Amino acid sequence: MSIESLAFNVTEKFLEKLASHAYQEISFAWGLQGELKKLEDILLTVKAVLLDAEEKQVDNHQLRVWLIKLKDALYDAEDVLDDFECETQRKRVLKLYGTTIKKVGRFFSSSNPLVFRFKMVHKIKQIREKLDEIASHKTNFHLNERDEGRRVMYRQRAMTYSFINVSDVIGRDEDKENIIKLLQGSSDGGQISIIPIVGIGGMGKTALSKLVYNDERVQNHFQLKMWVCVSEDFDIQKLTKEIIKCTNSAENLSEKGMEQLQSILRERIRDKKYLLILDDVWNDDPMKWDPLKELLCVGANGSKIVVTTRSKKVASIMGTISEPYELSGLPHDKCVALFTRCAFKEGEEKHYPNLLKIGDEIVKKCKGVPFAVKTLASLLLTNKEESYWIFVRDTELWKIEQKKNDKILPALKLSYE
């Protein structure tokens, strides 16, 4: 899950905005110092326990809901402050160019500043009271104040592995066959082909790679198979060690330097037709990739490297085929099947026809991303209250993220809050 999805970050950014010079000016110009100071005090109190809350919410449904409500209220507050900022800018422009603008047309609507201030101050007071009420409930969860230095970095993804239960994957049969054809095909003018699989987070790139990796045809096609999770740390020495370990090496590599490691790697893969999966690659610096590529090129003709990545730039740098394989979203019926499997115990769904209808609407908002479907369904598995399913379906986070064009699907945010 992206670090941007955490309530701590939203609170921190909001506090930074309140403390900025621009907003200090706005608060003074509109006479908002008192209300905004109260708002800041509330958020500073809440922020102190958010790191602890974000860890504990995984196993606490009520705490997860509390975090969602907090973020909804913060987004409302941010919208009100943005309105003040827009009105302040409008007044400045009218002051400088008002006569000209009137001649050109009514680009800016006129408004009574006293009425505007009264209306907006009332909104801020309402939001502040709402946040105050939400903050007051934090004592129910027995949260501890946490130092930011002890913060857990959630962006670092858990290391992946090659095993998969094939029955858990829905709707990727055609993609699997397409990738296997690429693996069985001849190399494009070179000794080794590098096939990038590209898609947004949660689209199922790793799951697809696992399906391919464990297929019997692939097992028989390659002499050697290796799986390495790369993630954000593209360290050539570390990766070289991980690749060597995949060759069933029992050798102790901890004290080996890069010179010894590169020699061992080349010896292990020399003249062997191998398949290497490099899962979750973020590095887009060709200067880091080229040295590793050099070492891997000693394999036999027909060797293949599959790279999974969210970045088209990474795919362009690493790939040798004409176009990377872009993984698209699942069809709606496949998503519904996946959702139903994960949101209900076997056969349980027939007792909840209303929840199935709501679930169908939630699935539509996931836009074909299987991880979002699966994660939200798993969240709903333990709660069969219709009101909660409606809350998840109708939460403003969907609209907010569409407005901001955020690449992180809001469903993933919901699942983590």
Characterise the protein shown here.
The chain has 417 residues and is of the alpha/beta class. The chain has helices at 7-19, 21-30, 33-56, 61-104, 113-136, 173-184, 205-213, 216-221, 236-245, 258-269, 286-296, 312-318, 332-343, 353-365, 370-381, 386-394, 397-404, 410-416, and strands spanning 192-198, 224-231, 274-281, 303-309, 325-326. β3 (274-281), α11 and β4 form a beta-alpha-beta unit. The protein is globular. The model is unreliable at 1-5, 99-110, 149-156 and 400-417 (pLDDT under 50).
Note the total helix count.
18
**Mean of all residue-level pLDDT scores:** 81
Question: First CA to last CA: what distance?
Answer: 10 Å
What order do the SSEs take from the amino end to the carboxyl end, as H and E?
A: HHHHHHEHHEHHEHEHEHHHHHH
Structural class: alpha/beta
The overall strand count is 5
Strand order of the biggest β-sheet: 2-3-4-1-5
Biggest sheet details: 5 strands, parallel
Helix proportion range:
55-70%
* Shape estimate: globular
Q: Proportion of β residues?
A: 5-15%
Poorly predicted segments: 1-5, 99-110, 149-156, 400-417
**Whole-angstrom Rg:** 27 Å
